[in-house]
Amino acid sequence: MLPTPKRFTLVAGSGEGNTPLTAFDSALLNAGAGNLNLIKVSSILPPQAQYDPNLSIPPGSIVPTAFGAISSSKPGEIITAAVAVGIPEEDTFGVIMEHSGHYPKDEIEKQIKNMVMEASSFRGIPLREIKIAAAEQKVKSCASVFAGLLLWY
Amino acid sequence: MLPTPKRFTLVAGSGEGNTPLTAFDSALLNAGAGNLNLIKVSSILPPQAQYDPNLSIPPGSIVPTAFGAISSSKPGEIITAAVAVGIPEEDTFGVIMEHSGHYPKDEIEKQIKNMVMEASSFRGIPLREIKIAAAEQKVKSCASVFAGLLLWY
Amino acid sequence: MLPTPKRFTLVAGSGEGNTPLTAFDSALLNAGAGNLNLIKVSSILPPQAQYDPNLSIPPGSIVPTAFGAISSSKPGEIITAAVAVGIPEEDTFGVIMEHSGHYPKDEIEKQIKNMVMEASSFRGIPLREIKIAAAEQKVKSCASVFAGLLLWY
C-alpha cells in the first residue's frame, strides 16, 4: 500500500504570471510549495498526523495535498483560495476542506470553517480546533491563488 | 516505484450538503469512501487484481481510485455517476471507465457498459464480465453523486 | 514517504472515440500510455531524474504524470496538447509545464517553451535544454489529444 502520511502543514500563496499555469506556479512558489509534485487527495487528515509548520520537503517529492486554487485574467478582480482542517478532540482522523472563489479573505475563511464543521458533524467528530490557510489577490494582469494542506511523512 | 494495487471494489453513493464540496463529501460517505484520501487515476485494473466487495481500508489511507462525480444545486434535477470495469477473459489487465451527467441510472449504466466495451476492443481484450456501480439522486437543495473503483493492496 | 521518481519520458498522442472519455483513452493508447494508471502531479522534474525515451512500464502501474489534454466533439476543429520540461544546466530539479487548446502545433510549442522559460526564471534556474512533446488533431467526430511527462523509477 501507499504509506499513510504522518505530518502536515497548511500553506497559501498568490502570484502573477504571463499565463494561468505560470501564475499558478507563481502562487505555489509564494506558498512555499512550488518545487514539489503535488498530488490532489480527497481529503482526510490521517489519525495521529502531527502538525508541523516547518515541514521541509525535498524538491521533486510526491506530496499528497488537499488544495483549492483559482486563476483569473480580469484586472481588478478579487480571487481567494482557502483550505481548512478540523482537528478532532479525540485520537481519530480529521476532515479537510478546500474552497476558492471571488470572496474577500475573511468571507472565505468563514465559509470554509462552516464546511469543516458540517463535514465533521456528518461523522459525529467533535473538534478541538480548526486550522485555516487562505490567500487573497487582486488581479493585476493574470493571477492565481492557492491554498493547500500538505501531507507528509 | 509506487506499488501496484492487488485488490479492488466498486462503490457508489449520493448525498446532500450546504455546499457542493460538502455534498460531495456526503456522497463519498454514503458510498463508504468518505474517510479515505482518494487520488484520481486513469484507469486500468492491474493484472491479477482481485475483486473484494468487503474491502476494509483504514481511515486516511491514500487510495488510487477511478471515479466519476457530479454536483448540482438545481432542485429537482437528476444527477448520476457511474463507474465500470471490464474483467478480461484471460489473465491480463482490464479497463475502467467513469461517467457522470443528468441521465437516469439505467441509461448511464448502458452508456458506461458501451464505453468499457469500446475501450476493451481498442486493445483486443475479450471480456468475461463487466462490473458496474452507479448512483442517481434527485437534487433537493445541493446534491452530489459519486461512483468509484477503489484500488487497494 | 512516496518514492521520488528517477527517470522520465515525454509522450503525446491523439485519438477518436464514441465519447470524450474513450477518445481520451484512444489518445493515451496512441501516446503509449494507455495501459497505465496516471496520477496527475504539479510539476517538477526531480533532481537527477534521467531521460529515458524507451521507458517500459508494466500495465496497471501507478505513474506520476504531468499532462495536458483536451477533447472536442466539433468536427473540423483543431485541438492540441503539449508538455515541456526545462532541463537545468546544473544538477538541480527542473520545471514541467503542460498546455492544451485550439492552437496549431507549432504555436502551442512556442507557448509552452515560453511557459517553461518563465517558470525557470521564477526560480533562477538556467536551462541547458527544453524537451517538448505535443500532439495535434483535426476532429473527425469526437477526438482527444494528450501530452504527458511520465515520471518513473
From TrEMBL, chains A, B, C:
The keyword Aminoacyl-tRNA synthetase does not apply. One of its GO terms (biological process) is L-arginine catabolic process. SUPFAM superfamilies: Pyruvoyl-dependent histidine and arginine decarboxylases. Its cofactor is pyruvate. The keyword Lyase applies. GO terms for molecular function: arginine decarboxylase activity. Keywords: Decarboxylase, Lyase, Pyruvate. InterPro entries: Pyr-dep_his/arg-deCO2ase, Pyr-dep_his/arg-deCO2ase_sand, Pyruvoyl-dep_arg_deCO2ase. Its EC number is 4.1.1.19. Pfam families: PvlArgDC (PF01862). It catalyses: L-arginine + H(+) = agmatine + CO2. It is an enzyme of class 4 (lyase). NCBIfam families: pyruvoyl-dependent arginine decarboxylase. This is Pyruvoyl-dependent arginine decarboxylase AaxB. It comes from Formimonas warabiya.
